[in-house]
Design a protein that fits this description.
homodimer; Arc Repressor Mutant, subunit A; Nucleotidyltransferase, domain 5; five-stranded mixed beta sheet; 13 helices; 16 strands; ROK family transcriptional regulator (chains A, B)
């Protein structure tokens, strides 16, 4: 369940488009500089760009605080040495949840400088969440000594689809209080920074191929199982956003044609069978208070038989949906994340059985299924990667 | 149901990779030249590349017969003018079917120079098909006057998945006689040309965004409904091949958990409900001979009620599977092709109802569903586009 805003990875439809070309050229130069400082002449040689092009782009990067230069002597000749500013370029990652908020400061070299997570009241209004984020960011800047001028932008994760056409949180979000708000505009005002918004599952996928262990993977799906079920996609090495920015809505795959009514208005969607909300409903009968996702993990690890059955049923249904997905996009890796990640093989095993049962054999055999190792930091870390991506900095 | 071979659109993982960089730079130069001839100095200015880089690439293109140069005087100074060879660079497109073979010769400017389609016996061996293709190509060269030296390569469509890891036709192909054959190697020997193989549905998708009316579309799915049901994907503007090259296997989406056994070994797959094979089985009871796909189209257009019902049921099932697909990849356009294309709205209407019923509302509302306008030429035309793609020539 994705969405980007400001995330238009446009192909170079118009070869003459100077800004698209400049962006591509800058990305090449940054890729060279990630390996270490280099002279302008050497950058021109490595990229095939003219020295005038290199010098223009270096100037722009210098003005943006991304790079610095110093005159040196190379082979007896005067040259200009260029280096990326690692302390001089810091990204903010913000993850908004239903009842929490996490803020991370990260350097260009993918190092966490500071991090804080706070609880928010259930049903809080968007504005309340935004003000809390501003407060946490101020505290992190003060405690870490990072200058505000070093911030290159903020990446923000929202647990719901964002309509690219309007920049607003769309219907179907797990945070109903945020629906219809132009989140991008409001956050840019509040943070006074360039802001890049994306949905939590997309950021999970991005974090796996940047901060996580899957940096060599071109085609990856991150599946978040929580109160909603959504997927983020990395296809051909880049985040995939589709036509209007709403992708990975695997929670609304039809499993039972005449099943329960879903919040999306359809029937028998995967979410009506395998979301934590449904699992909690099934397992809370006769309990004093509703269970939490943490309770499900604990009881399953204690081998409570009803919990194991509910987890198994949910996993099989997820696996069936994944089988159809794998048949379509043939990912190399599917990473499962969300509050049930602590279940480990207890959840992965039925998912794998469902996947293999429903996928075309060669696809079932070659798809790696694994649990996320980034835990509840995945979205905030992915949000910092979103900022670097837009600055033209990939880490692969 | 896709597969490419030689089709590795790798991302530039290693920024220093000279061949990847050369390919990218060549693509930029060709994109400029598609607008018309240009001097080397002008090419350097437009692309930001150094004049040395431009001159190297032009030399390589000249040697490959893709471009030619002539000295001119520009603003009183001597310059080298570069033009793409349109007659000098011809692509061969070959489409192998169960009982037909089509060969097309196309120029760089996407103009068909010559074309021939021949029938092949049902159950023919791969070698028989390859020899027939060699014969048709020779005839087309003779009749059109195109020199063999002008051929830059051959694109070949196969109605089945091709395993990228081995270059062989994989299990599940509609042409069982071709399974296990290293089609790429055999064709390169027989044709004495660089060969690019892809599956028919992928080529259908490629033809829609090159030869067809959808050239501005970044995210398109081509759905071929025939004896098999498979899809080709254009995502972020380029053909999508996934991990092992087998994608778009929507024919094996589970519709009925306990439905009929499918040729893939699963149950209740879409193909067991909506392929032409199933439709023919349902409608041939009591007939003297089995119907053909053409008969289905004719009888439906004559408003035969049983045929209309079978088409409607098939369309609804296809639409249900498409709803789940659209939820995942949010395409802008879904194009339906194959031997039932003549049904027009009789088939599109139930597909559309199924799609809207099963997709998340905003996705159902914004996905365009349309019939292919390229008919049975889609695959062969797409095969020529595959050759130009590999020469770095896109048409968007």
């Amino acid at each position: 369940m994705p969405s980007p805003t400001r995330s238009t990875r446009s192909r170079t439809k118009n070869p003459g488009s100077q800004s698209a070309l400049r962006h591509l050229n800058q990305q090449r130069i940054i890729e060279c500089l990630l390996a270490g400082p280099s002279t302008q002449a050497e950058l021109a040689r490595q990229t095939g760009l003219s020295t005038a092009t290199v010098s223009n782009i270096v100037k722009i990067m210098q003005d943006a605080g991304l790079a610095s230069t110093e005159p040196i002597t190379s082979s007896g000749r005067r040259a200009l040495n260029v280096r990326l500013n690692s302390n001089g370029a810091v990204a903010v990652g913000i993850d908004f949840g239903r009842r929490h908020l996490r803020v991370v400061l990260a350097s260009l070299s993918y190092h966490v400088i500071a991090e804080e997570s706070v609880l928010l009241p259930l049903g809080h209004h968007a504005e309340e969440g935004i003000q809390a984020a501003v407060g946490v960011l101020d505290r992190l800047l003060a405690s870490s000594g990072v200058e505000r001028s070093a911030l290159v932008g903020a990446g923000v994760g929202i647990p719901g689809p964002i309509d690219r056409r309007t920049g607003t949180v769309a219907q179907g979000a797990i945070l109903p209080e945020w629906v219809g708000i132009n989140i991008l505009k409001r956050l840019e005002e509040a943070l006074d920074l360039p802001v890049f918004v994306d949905n939590d599952a997309n950021l999970g996928a991005l974090s796996e191929v940047t901060w996580g262990p899957h940096s060599g993977v071109s085609n990856l799906m991150f599946l978040k199982i929580g109160s909603g079920i959504g997927a983020g996609l990395i296809l051909n090495g880049v985040p995939y956003y589709g036509n209007v920015g709403i992708t990975g809505e695997i929670g609304h795959a039809t499993i039972h044609e005449h099943g329960l009514i879903c919040r999306c208005g359809n029937r028998g969607c995967l979410e009506t069978i395998a979301s934590t909300t449904t699992m909690i409903e099934l397992l809370s009968r006769g309990e004093d208070r509703p269970l939490t996702p943490g309770d499900i993990v604990r009881k399953a690890l204690e081998r409570d038989s009803a919990t194991l059955r509910v987890v198994d049923d949910a996993g099989l249904a997820v696996g069936r949906a994944l089988g159809n997905v794998a048949n379509l996009i043939n990912p190399e890796v599917i990473v499962v994340g969300g509050p049930l990640a602590g279940l480990g093989e207890l959840l992965l095993d039925p998912i794998r059985r469902g996947l293999i049962r429903h996928a075309v054999p060669v696809i079932g055999e070659t798809t790696t299924l694994t649990m996320s190792s980034l835990g509840d930091r995945a979205e905030a870390l992915g949000a910092t990667a979103l900022v670097f991506q837009h600055a033209g900095i990939r880490r692969n």
